[in-house]
Amino acid sequence: MAGHSKWANIKHKKAATDAKRGKVWTRLIKEITVAARMGGADVDANPRLRLAVDKAADANMPKENVTRAVQRGSGSLEGANYEEVRYEGYGIGGAAIIVDCMTDNRVRTVAEVRHAFNKHGGNMGTEGSVAFMFQHCGQLLFAPGVDEDRLMEAALEAGADDVIADDEGGFEVLCDPFAFAAVKDALDKAGFKAEVAEIIMKPATETVIGGDDGIKMQKILDALENLDDVQEVYTNVLIEE
What are phi and psi of 158, to 5 degrees? Predict the structure, then answer.
């Protein structure tokens, strides 16, 4: 669709991530801490921790920061006790939004999230109000130019659920969250380096919006993403540039 390019959006997101590296590191430290607390400090035995550590490496986070976060999570160092909490709500035109947070103060976090929604024309919903519109899955995105047959063979052999080609010649590999580490490893070994590799909440269907509605929607998403306690924001709309 004219004006919307998945690969342009990925590059834009990467540039924005680089510009907010300090905040990215803070979010990764929280994720590493919680992952280590829930699944142990052994990266090889804890897929969630391994994914977080890999993301930290991609974000050029110093190894000592990673080590300290793991130690805090495993209890060998003192630190804040973060918990995961999810909020759901609506953006422009009833667009679905999921906001995943890590916080040491739920009262503060819910107030900040509600304010971000209300200030920009959205509103918070109740638990489960939009989550049913999304699928929890592993997602790996490959840029145009990849050998489709080889990628499909390697992905399905590794346990992926689906390989989807897009209109620009790129590919999306989807898998069960618990199979994500194995699928990513197998594709890495086969020579396929994903542009993006994450466990996400993927919308069942997506709607493209633009113009004033797109600008308003982006303001809601930006306000949520800029909150210190927010880890990830998911929506079922694509904003046309």
Answer: -80, -10
Q: Give pLDDT tens digits for 6-30.
A: 666 665 565 555 555 568 888 999 9
Do 152 and 184 lie in a common domain? yes
* Residue-number span of the structural domain to which 216 is assigned: 83-132+205-239
* CATH value at residue 50: 1.10.10.200
Please tell me the predicted confidence (pLDDT) of residue 168: 85
Nearest 5°: the CA angle 199, 184, 21 is 55
Q: How many domains would you assign to the chain?
A: 3
Side-chain-side CA neighbours of 10 within 13 Å: the count stands at: 15
Reported as type and span, the H/E element at residue 106 is helix 106-119
Domain shared by 126 and 226, yes or no: yes
Are residues 162 and 182 both part of a single domain? Answer: yes
Contacts of 233 (CB under 8 A, 6+ apart): 97, 98, 99, 100, 221, 224, 225
| Cβ(227)–Cβ(112) below 8 Å | yes
Report which secondary-structure segment, H or E, holds 203: strand 196-203
- Which of 26, 44, 74 represents a domain boundary (last residue)? 74
Give the residue-averaged pLDDT of 190-219.
93
